[in-house]
Amino acid sequence: MRLPSLAVAASLLVSFTPAIEACTFQHDDFPTVISARTPPIPSDILDKLSPKLSPSAKIIFPSSPLWSNASQRWNELSRPTYSAIIEVSTERDISESVKYANKHNIPFFAFSQGHGSYYGLERFQDGIGISLSSLSRKIELDSSGKWATIGGGMRSKDVIDYLWKRGKQTPTGGCGCVGVIGPMLGGGHNWIQGQVGLMADQVLGFRVVLANGEVVSVDDKTNKDLFWAMRGAGHNFGIVSEAKYKVYDVKEPKWSVETFTFRSSRLEDVYTYANKKLNGKGDPRLLMWGTWFLNPAIDEKPVIQFQWIYNGPLAELKKLSKDTHALKADAYTSMEVDYPELSPSLGYGAEQYACQTDGRGNRLLRGIDVDQYDVKSLRKWYDAFAATVMTEPTFQTSFCILEGYSTQAVQAVPDKSTAYALRGERLLLAPAIFWQKGNATLDEKARKWSKEMYLAASGSAKKKSYVNYAHGDEPVEALYGYEPWRLEKLRKVKKQYDPQGKFGFFNPINPATQGHRDM
Ligand SMILES: Cc1cc2nc3c(=O)[nH]c(=O)nc-3n(C[C@H](O)[C@H](O)[C@H](O)COP(=O)(O)OP(=O)(O)OC[C@H]3O[C@@H](n4cnc5c(N)ncnc54)[C@H](O)[C@@H]3O)c2cc1C
Ligand SMILES: *[C@@H]1O[C@H](CO)[C@@H](O)[C@H](O)[C@H]1NC(C)=O
Ligand SMILES: *[C@@H]1O[C@H](CO)[C@@H](O)[C@H](O)[C@H]1NC(C)=O
């Protein structure tokens, strides 16, 4: 069994009502929305800006038939709003768009595949959206076969498919629908990270449009500190037009998955066992995955699904998982697929429910990074999840993920060498709430529920949250590191490259300053 199926999702969409509700954020501990009014877009934007853009760039307004597709996001709640979207297709287009926005003192916000769900994004109101998705076709394998140039708007699935045809692979997001650069800038978890490291660890260099529109190269020789900062806190510093990115020969095309499904009463057994297997010295090709979701065929309470995901043949995996079979799961399945089929076979394909961006959905994602399973906290989290998912039909396709990526190659990279601050954590716990937009009562309920699950799952450990899963009410140190030197260094680099805080809308490193809407 996999993630909630389309059949369940479809039953939700039937009751969808396109009511428009104001979505002002009401969390007590969330920084207040800064209410500087955005100046209107000059009416001569087409005359003034278009001639500076490449012929294939588009300036799209809300009245355009292209608008809904251009503006829709994976999560529609607390989303940014635009008065125009510029669909760029070259690096120069990005630079000209930034200069234009600056000249008219209009905030700008660059996005790629639209999956970022950080709740502070609603602070971006009526500015200029810079859509990078037309850069998405741009990928080119270097003749050395060791790296590829990847465009700033590239989608995970397109990178996987392009490279696969050439006998290559590289770290990308697990879900085919997400951007490549977005995850990369925050670290970038991926199926092969135990073997080759985070997405950020593959970057040989970036081409970056800075806050003032200037274009620079960023690597370990040029703009070195910026290179450090952009691998972990990258959303704060510039717009990546392309990245020079390591790729690898496919040595083992096969991936195997064993899925063990348990009833809720087995939670303690499963995670006590799982903790013993989390020694960090195991096989870097072996990942431990967990999902909780409603599966009435097995239990009226959410089921606990425990999975081994392995880069190798099923027969090999079965040798590694003998003692898991001894736990006597309530249901069991297994499969063996080629790498491009791995995500779809787990329910994470580009067109599948968990990935979909159709403009109708509110989603609330959180991330809690921990070193091991705290069984008592998991039980609390599970009970909080079960209580609401079982009683509120609107939320029935919500699920919780317990991501146990392998970490060997991630931890082999020196901790101080990039801004990514969570190399020590081995697990990413992620409640994901799905519901239809248009009902403020439900929105509030989802927020309360999400916070309840976050607090339960965090337990007593120092809070840490993967920046690309962060909600926005976590301490800034939870995202960027508790060692004081980390934030000091990030803020120093910020001052140098973005003194006015133009890039302050996605998980800002300066949540306290109120410069250019920089929280
Ligand atoms: C279904 C789903 C699956 C996911 N799977 C994974 C996963 O496997 N691994 C993982 O690590 N994370 C994963 N994530 C989290 C993911 O890293 C973030 O959602 C990320 O922001 C998605 O990038 P995007 O281009 O789709 O989103 P967008 O909303 O377009 O981008 C998010 C932010 O990234 C920045 N950004 C994007 N592109 C650029 C660029 N070229 N230059 C500068 N800034 C840029 C912008 O600040 C933007 O606000 C997943 C999220 C979802 C919803
Ligand atoms: C919608 O936008 C995406 C990029 O975000 C693009 O790939 C797709 O072709 C567009 N679809 C339509 C119908 O215009
Ligand atoms: C919103 O959701 C609540 C809770 O399920 C429900 O009672 C209410 O009728 C819904 N309101 C609308 C307008 O659909």
UniProtKB/TrEMBL annotation:
<dbReference type="InterPro" id="IPR016167">
    <property type="entry name" value="FAD-bd_PCMH_sub1"/>
</dbReference>
<keyword id="KW-0560">Oxidoreductase</keyword>
<comment type="similarity">
    <text>Belongs to the oxygen-dependent FAD-linked oxidoreductase family.</text>
</comment>
<dbReference type="GO" id="GO:0071949">
    <property type="term" value="F:FAD binding"/>
</dbReference>
<dbReference type="Pfam" id="PF01565">
    <property type="entry name" value="FAD_binding_4"/>
</dbReference>
<dbReference type="GO" id="GO:0016491">
    <property type="term" value="F:oxidoreductase activity"/>
</dbReference>
<dbReference type="InterPro" id="IPR016169">
    <property type="entry name" value="FAD-bd_PCMH_sub2"/>
</dbReference>
<dbReference type="InterPro" id="IPR006094">
    <property type="entry name" value="Oxid_FAD_bind_N"/>
</dbReference>
<keyword id="KW-0732">Signal</keyword>
<keyword id="KW-0285">Flavoprotein</keyword>
<protein>
    <recommendedName>
        <fullName>FAD-binding PCMH-type domain-containing protein</fullName>
    </recommendedName>
</protein>
<feature type="domain" description="FAD-binding PCMH-type">
    <location>
        <begin position="78"/>
        <end position="250"/>
    </location>
</feature>
<dbReference type="InterPro" id="IPR016166">
    <property type="entry name" value="FAD-bd_PCMH"/>
</dbReference>
<dbReference type="Pfam" id="PF08031">
    <property type="entry name" value="BBE"/>
</dbReference>
<dbReference type="InterPro" id="IPR050416">
    <property type="entry name" value="FAD-linked_Oxidoreductase"/>
</dbReference>
<dbReference type="InterPro" id="IPR012951">
    <property type="entry name" value="BBE"/>
</dbReference>
<feature type="signal peptide">
    <location>
        <begin position="1"/>
        <end position="22"/>
    </location>
</feature>
<keyword id="KW-0274">FAD</keyword>
<dbReference type="InterPro" id="IPR036318">
    <property type="entry name" value="FAD-bd_PCMH-like_sf"/>
</dbReference>
